[in-house]
Amino acid sequence: MQERLKELQAEAIQKAAEAASLKELNDIRVAYLGKKGPITEVLRGMGKLSAEERPVMGALANEVREAIAVKIEAKQTELEEAEVQAKLALETIDVTLPGRPVKVGNHHPLTKIIEEIEDLFIGMGYEVAEGPEVEQDYYNFEALNLPKGHPARDMQDSFYITEEILLRTHTSPVQARTMEKHQGKGPIKIICPGKVYRRDNDDATHSHQFMQIEGLVVGENIRMSDLKGTLEVFAKKMFGEDREIRLRPSFFPFTEPSVEMDISCKMCGGHGCNVCKQTGWIEILGAGMVHPNVLEMAGYDPKKYNGFAFGMGPERIAMLKYGIDDIRHFYTNDVRFLKQFAIEE
Ligand code: PHE
Hints:
This protein has helices at 2-18, 22-33, 38-44, 53-90, 109-122, 137-140, 173-181, 224-239, 292-297, 314-322, 329-332, 335-339; strands spanning 127-128, 134-136, 165-167, 188-197, 209-219, 245-252, 255-264, 281-290, 306-312. By secondary structure, the chain is α+β, with helices and mostly antiparallel strands. The chain has two domains: 2-90, no CATH class; 109-341, 2-Layer Sandwich (BirA Bifunctional Protein, domain 2), CATH 3.30.930.10. The protein has a seven-stranded mixed sheet with strand order 1-4-5-9-8-7-6, with helices on both faces. The protein has a two-stranded antiparallel ribbon with strand order 2-3. The longest helix is centred in the N-terminal third of the chain and has 38 residues, at 53-90. The mean pLDDT is 90. Bound molecules: phenylalanine. Phenylalanine binds at residues 170, 172, 214, 252, 255, 286-288, 309-311. One of its GO terms (molecular function) is transferase activity. It catalyses: tRNA(Phe) + L-phenylalanine + ATP = L-phenylalanyl-tRNA(Phe) + AMP + diphosphate + H(+). Residues 111-340 form the Aminoacyl-transfer RNA synthetases class-II family profile domain. Its cofactor is Mg(2+). One of its GO terms (biological process) is phenylalanyl-tRNA aminoacylation.
């Protein structure tokens, strides 16, 4: 019996040592130490032993059990440790691997142009103002000296929401709103960028939605030469010091006199080409001295106050500056187009 126990001990320890997994080890534990195991079997035969032999054999059986249990325990720790190590090895992060590139966006070309123009005017003491895109007929037309039935309203076919409410056709209503807010007291120096809407059919140079930047200065003794000087600074900063400007007489109901500003064509140096339609000049914006009626309607005394206003299209300016040939590129947002403007940031 003693021998059998020793044999079982050696056998169990051997098997435990060879166990390759925790599962296998557990099977060994159950097989040798379990109730149906060979040691229990041996102990069952103790009844046949003498009273002296019994305690000796009992002690030995316990020793054998203990030895096997200790071995299994040690092996279990070893296998568990190995398992952790294997898992760690599997999950090792190679910090020398190159990272996955993160796609970085860039500002939209129009945003860039608008911010550039804003910065330029802020540098000259202007503030940035805003107004609603869904506008009242009153601010979009009437307060700008365009009463109902005025023929100049035809120039801007509009998206009406009701009789009295429409999508603004220009940023000029912000002029009227700003003056009204100042309650007849100057001075005012604002620029106002924003979206405007017209019922145009979209093509290379027209879009039913586009941007404008409005400028308004109101004060005492503001002269046409102030307007010209301001626009000249703007044009040279925006397009280059070598550019000339010229003012042509024009008409807007809310300015008198009214002008349109052209800059000299850079492509041909003024000799005439496709870009300037053979004229040597490119039209950039509309401007003029604020009409006395507009001042008066907004609560300003036109005898004391006067001012100038201008309005330009950032798309057109961006198209000229970057050589973009179709206004629709700004709104179809092809990433290949937009990406080209990342370089300058
Ligand atoms: N609002 C005019 C337009 O949309 C532009 C403009 C603004 C002209 C201010 C003169 C003064 O065409």
